[in-house]
Amino acid sequence: MQAYDFIVIGSGPAGQRAAIQAAKLGKRTAIVDRQSMLGGVSVHTGTIPSKTLREAALYLSGWDQRGLYGQNYRLKTNLTIDDLMQRLHITLQHETEVIQNQLSRNGIDIIEGTATFVNEHTISVEHNDSGVEEFRSDYFLIAVGSRPIRPEGIPFDDEHVFDSDGILEIKRMPSSLVVVGAGVIGIEYASIFSTLDTKVTVLDGRDSMLGFLDQEIVDELTHSLRDRGISIRLGENVESIEPCDNGHVIVTTKSGKRLSADMVLYAAGRIGSTWALQPDKAGIEVDERRLISVNENFQTNIPHIYAAGDIIGFPSLASTSMEQGRLAASHAFNDTETNMAKNFPFGIYAVPEISMVGATEEELRKQDIPYEIGIARLRETARGQIMGLNEGILKILFSIDDKRVLGVHIIGEGATELIHIGQAALVLGGTLDYFIDNVFNYPTLAEAYKIAALDAWNKINI
Question: In angstroms, rounded to a whole number, what is the distance separating the alpha carbons of residues 292 and 189?
Fold first, then answer.
């Protein structure tokens, strides 16, 4: 039996960073994952594929040029799935090679196969060639991620009815699509397929979507989606999904509505990928969604076994997962208290992009914190005019008492890049004066920060 100081189960963002951190601390480290899944859900079915598909769709459809050349502009007519998937496969291959090289450079052993706990210090790994080995470790990190929930009664066939993993394997472009679930994944795919001239309907049983966002941003998104023909039906639960002989699918809601579509994407929730791992054999507790609870140091109820990434639940971002994995490994071998940054950004790669950091208006009102708002519309900037932008806002929330930045919310072109300026100001205690007194490159979208700050200054100094 081979022994390690640290074994990481799962090679997604959390697992990679944890393994590299342990190796840099001089610990003998291994990472266990199936060969076909090196890089985890993030590389193969989550973050990287959906964002690659988004960029390919925006470019090949000509969507990002329609503000300049009109709504009828198309870079390529008769766009096919093969056109999109060609770019996707190139990107995934490249990312897998980069990960493999990073792990090898840091002297991390890659163990291919499916891991199962034997006891709290031992795992067995069933290799792809059907052989089984056991490995012992002083510390473990569980970073096995999550997978889409597939409720009973939903006829998933990966031809007409897909989950968010299977949608990446579609063989033809749908003429119409019903997306069940108005969460991050559902809204991202709904908006992406809309750019490809697919008729899209979004269903969700909740009365609102993306509830963690600032409501004004959600309103702006809703208007943008509906303006280009996406039907959003909230408060509607699915009663049944039935494939028809004509190749279409009928979605019936509990309120009696019937929707016909070429395809259905069911994206209503995810569940932890812990079945094969059998964490109970190590004494690890999981909840009803197969997720693992951890303390502030990312330790499970078994102190030498850590968990990070999607498997511990919210926020389930690749960016936060990386930091969770790094901090878990650091705590295991340095016995230091972790200090996970509280002001991390959220990025939603819909069309248009959305990103936020800090407090929302709703949160500030609940806490009775006096605040003022500064808003800039991206189309009002010179760069926005050059790019032909028709939509997008940048919104900054400032404290009335000391003018500190309390939150930044952006929807529009480049939102996930622009947010980091606001994040830096927020984390470092920056104020309204920073944006007013400093010079921004011209013409840039970042200039919207100065416009928003001036808008807030006018309101504060009435």
Answer: 28
**Long-range contact set of residues 453-460: C-beta below 8 Å, sequence gap at least 24:** 453/374, 453/396, 454/374, 455/373, 455/374, 455/375, 455/376, 456/372, 456/373, 456/374, 456/396, 456/398, 456/432, 457/374, 457/432, 459/372, 459/373, 459/374, 460/372, 460/398, 460/400, 460/403, 460/432
Same fold, 2-148+271-334 and 161-268: yes
pTM for the structure as a whole: 0.91
By the 8 A CB rule, do 412 and 391 touch? yes
Backbone conformation region of residue 314, classed left if phi is above 0, alpha if psi is from -120 to 50, else beta: beta
- CATH says 161-268 is which class? alpha beta
pLDDT by residue (tens digit) across 10-28?
999 999 999 999 999 999 9
In sequence order, what DSSP letters do the residues of 339-398 get, joined into one string?
A: ---S-PPEEE-SSS-EEEEE--HHHHHHTT--EEEEEEEGGGSHHHHHHT----EEEEEE
Domain 352-460 has CATH 3.30.390.30: yes
Report, as an integer, the average pLDDT of 289-302: 95
For residue range 155-205, list pLDDT tens digits in order. 999 999 999 999 988 999 999 999 999 999 999 999 999 998 899 999 999
